[in-house]
């Protein structure tokens, strides 16, 4: 046995050394046949695992929803209803498979060509890159799409979701506007009816509210908190929201050019920088411990409507809170815009029947189903006059905490059209850290440097 | 037929590893070399860009910053690791009570998941609520921004990584120490050598090969610094903990600049090889003299 193994090993060594003997030639052949045979089988298995959907008389459309429980329930409900009334166009729903993020899963699916027909949790900022890679269906080429979309949304929203090639690849579906949650008791103590509405009011409240409650010589109560992490999407909840508010819904990128090197971005950086410099905002990561807002360590926070269910579940007895628009520069005029955190619906080009997918989407975002979605998930459908529409009145009467968000819904913005938006946010985030958190750059210099870096990127 | 079957058997036996090697080592390496000369964001077709990725790397200040951060980490981590490991190995080599317990206890962090250790230390390092700062306040010392002060954050990570890995090196040193013949110490004692002289002139030269191995392993492990900054700081504050591997990861799996990430990876691998071969030459020469 040992000799046999040794003989085999010796042969391998001979082959490895490239010794050319007739026997080696034979061995090479055997090596290829035997060594690669299992590999070949695996390769074949891969090929067949990626095979087409089972051919049936009525092929099913596949719809991936987000993986939060309310949306899974909504997707299951409407799909079941659709399948009852459309037996010839069956739809199968499933939540987007688990992964580090849904964006990563979608990317993996795009690469593996295993995308569903319909996906309903697409971040608006990702669409341009996917459309340029030709993996999405231009929806405006589908019959009736434009009529439908203009009936549902304002022209500004339609413009916002139109890609640089003039096509529309996404259906605006839902938003979660970022507002300011505030502790009512603390605000009353500061002599305010609601959260501070201007930069100077906010600063004054920060000064008065700041306290060392345990007497250890360090401040442990702050007016607000925002993540100090440089992760790009954290800027949705501080810089980007405040920039949109200050600029009346301005852009970061416009026509593939930098659009944020302006006074609004500088003012926003300066405001936030002062908050950290004066110690009105904590530099520590407060998210790694008990909820800082419900625990009373902070008086306000920039957040979305998802905060309601969390607060209702975990608030201490007697805790009162409300929502108001984010603060703006003192000389600001006009409505206060904010980031809407929109998630949209797309049809992938792997779909064998985009027209059928579009029919299902129309059903999914019909007025009745939008109200159902609102009731089930407490997320706002992105449709015009949502709050004024009597059809949704009963919901807002039953859920008054959602009213500020519904009123804010008129003045929200998503993201600009750019295939490198994450990188733009990352560059801004780097400068944000240097200027706002550590104060090693002036706001003017930080914005100028960010603009230069983004120009290079574009 | 019988001979052919016999000849095939070894190939069948090596095929599981061969498949693994080809799929997860050889193919990615070769593919990285191809990617070096391409621009590719995964979803769009590859575009040949020649040497553009390499030219970009030469001008990329952030790459050199990440390299410097990694070297700072190594400069703290390796000596600290060797000193602490040697110290505890020397202690554990003595006839002390509960020796078995201590050996197991020091090794425990090595087998705990890196993510778990990192999250634990993140709590310890907390500015307001962290245990370390609470202890400092108790003894009248100012709080330290372990993970928020750019000057402190990398040493703090190096300290944590040392705590996590030192158990392994204690074991290695212990093996080295136990292989030193006791007669040498007896002879030295008879000649009147002090403890320090025994350590300096007998122990250290005898365990030089172990030191060499520890330096090499620590260097390779240190160059692959990733989990700690990824979880604790995200590379901040002010990029002070941005390790090279984290930077490559960001380029590849955050920006999807696969060509550039492959270029960074290959250049970084070459740098590691150069450093290791320099270390090898230096330490081997030291051992032989």
* CATH secondary-structure class of chain B: Mainly Alpha
Mean of residue pLDDT of chain B? 89
End-to-end separation of chain B in angstroms reads 58 Å
How far is the N terminus from the C terminus of chain A? 66 Å
Please estimate the helix content of chain B.
Answer: over 70%
* Strand content range of chain B: under 5%
What is the subunit organization of this protein?
heterodimer
Indicate the CATH architecture of the largest domain in chain A.
3-Layer(aba) Sandwich
- What does the main sheet of chain A amount to? 6 strands, mixed
Order of helices and strands of chain B: HEEHHHHHHHHHHHH
- Work out the helix count of chain B: 13
Total beta strand runs of chain A: 13
Note poorly predicted spans of chain B: none
General description of the model:
The complex is a heterodimer of chains A (458) and B (289). Helix content of chain A is 46%, strand content 11%. Chain A is an alpha/beta fold and 458 residues long. Chain A has 3 domains: 1-28, no CATH class; 61-176 and 341-413, Periplasmic binding protein-like II (D-Maltodextrin-Binding Protein, domain 2); 179-339 and 420-457, Periplasmic binding protein-like II (D-Maltodextrin-Binding Protein, domain 2, 3-Layer(aba) Sandwich). Chain B has one domain: Orthogonal Bundle (MetI-like fold). Chain B has helices spanning 2-35, 52-59, 61-92, 99-111, 114-124, 131-138, 153-178, 182-190, 195-206, 208-223, 227-232, 244-254, 258-288; strands spanning 38-39, 47-48. A two-stranded antiparallel sheet of chain B has the order 1-2. The chains are: A alpha/beta (458), B mainly alpha (289).
């Amino acid at each position: 046995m040992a000799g046999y193994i040794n003989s085999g090993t010796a042969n391998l060594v001979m082959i490895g050394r490239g010794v050319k003997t007739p026997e080696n030639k034979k061995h090479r052949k055997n090596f290829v046949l035997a060594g690669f045979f299992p590999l070949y089988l695996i390769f074949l298995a891969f090929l067949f695992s990626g095979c087409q959907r089972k051919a049936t008389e009525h092929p099913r459309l596949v719809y991936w929803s987000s993986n939060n429980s309310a949306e899974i329930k909504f997707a299951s409900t409407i799909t079941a209803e659709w399948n009852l009334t459309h037996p010839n166009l069956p739809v199968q729903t499933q939540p987007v498979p688990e992964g580090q993020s849904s964006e990563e899963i979608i990317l993996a699916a795009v690469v593996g060509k295993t995308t569903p027909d319909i996906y309903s949790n697409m971040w608006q900022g990702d669409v341009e890159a996917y459309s340029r890679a030709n993996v999405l269906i231009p929806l405006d080429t589908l019959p009736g799409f434009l009529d439908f979309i203009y009936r549902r949304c304002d022209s500004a929203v339609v413009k916002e979701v139109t890609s640089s090639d003039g096509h529309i690849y996404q259906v605006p579906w839902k938003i979660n506007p970022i507002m300011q949650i505030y502790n009512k008791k603390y605000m009353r103590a500061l002599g305010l009816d609601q959260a501070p509405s201007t930069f100077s009011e906010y600063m004054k409240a920060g000064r008065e509210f700041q306290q060392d409650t345990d007497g250890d010589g360090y401040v442990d109560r702050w007016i607000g908190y925002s993540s100090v992490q440089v992760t790009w999407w954290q800027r949705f909840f501080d810089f980007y929201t405040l920039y949109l508010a200050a600029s009346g819904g301005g852009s970061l990128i416009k026509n593939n050019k930098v659009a944020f090197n302006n006074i609004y971005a500088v003012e926003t950086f300066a405001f936030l920088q002062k908050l950290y410099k004066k110690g009105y905002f904590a530099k520590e990561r407060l998210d790694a411990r008990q909820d800082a807002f419900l625990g009373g360590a902070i008086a306000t926070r920039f957040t979305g409507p998802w905060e309601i269910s969390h607060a209702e579940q975990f608030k201490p007895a007697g805790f009162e809170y409300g929502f108001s628009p984010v603060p703006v520069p003192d000389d600001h005029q006009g409505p206060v815009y904010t980031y809407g955190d929109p998630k949209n619906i797309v049809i992938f080009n792997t779909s064998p029947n985009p027209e059928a997918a579009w029919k299902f989407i129309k059903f999914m975002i019909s007025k009745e189903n939008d109200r159902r979605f609102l009731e089930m998930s407490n997320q706002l459908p992105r449709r015009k006059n949502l709050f004024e529409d009597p059809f949704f009145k009963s919901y807002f009467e039953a859920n008054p905490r959602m009213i500020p968000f519904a009123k804010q819904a008129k003045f929200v913005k998503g993201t600009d059209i750019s295939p490198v938006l994450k990188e733009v946010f990352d560059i801004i985030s780097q400068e944000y850290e240097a200027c706002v958190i550590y104060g090693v750059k002036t706001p003017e210099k930080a914005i100028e440097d960010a603009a230069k870096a983004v120009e290079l990127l574009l | 037929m019988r001979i052919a079957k016999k000849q095939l058997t070894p190939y069948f036996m090596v095929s599981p590893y061969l498949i693994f090697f080809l799929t997860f080592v050889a193919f990615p390496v070769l593919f990285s070399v191809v990617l070096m000369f391409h621009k590719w964001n995964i979803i769009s077709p590859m575009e040949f860009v020649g040497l553009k990725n390499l030219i970009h790397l030469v001008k990329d200040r952030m790459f050199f910053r990440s390299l410097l951060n990694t070297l700072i980490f190594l400069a703290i981590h390796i000596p600290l690791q060797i000193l602490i490991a040697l110290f505890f190995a020397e202690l554990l080599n003595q006839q002390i009570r509960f020796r078995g317990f201590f050996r197991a206890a020091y090794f425990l962090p090595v087998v705990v998941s890196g993510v778990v250790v990192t999250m634990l230390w993140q709590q310890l390092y907390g500015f307001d609520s962290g245990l370390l700062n609470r202890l400092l306040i108790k003894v009248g010392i100012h709080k330290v921004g372990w993970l928020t002060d750019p000057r402190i954050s990398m040493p703090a990570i190096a300290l944590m990584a040392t705590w996590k890995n030192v158990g392994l090196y204690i074991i290695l040193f212990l093996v080295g120490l136990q292989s030193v013949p006791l007669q040498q110490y007896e002879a030295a004692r008879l000649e009147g050598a002090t403890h320090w002289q025994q350590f300096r002139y007998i122990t250290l030269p005898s365990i030089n090969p172990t030191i060499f191995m520890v330096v090499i392993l620590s260097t390779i492990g240190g160059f692959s610094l990733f989990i700690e900054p990824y979880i604790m700081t995200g590379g901040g504050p002010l990029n002070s903990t941005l390790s090279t591997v984290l930077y490559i990861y960001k380029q590849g799996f955050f920006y999807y600049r696969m060509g550039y990430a492959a270029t960074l990876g290959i250049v970084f691998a070459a740098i590691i090889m150069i450093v290791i071969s320099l270390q090898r030459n230096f330490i081997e020469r030291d051992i032989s003299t």
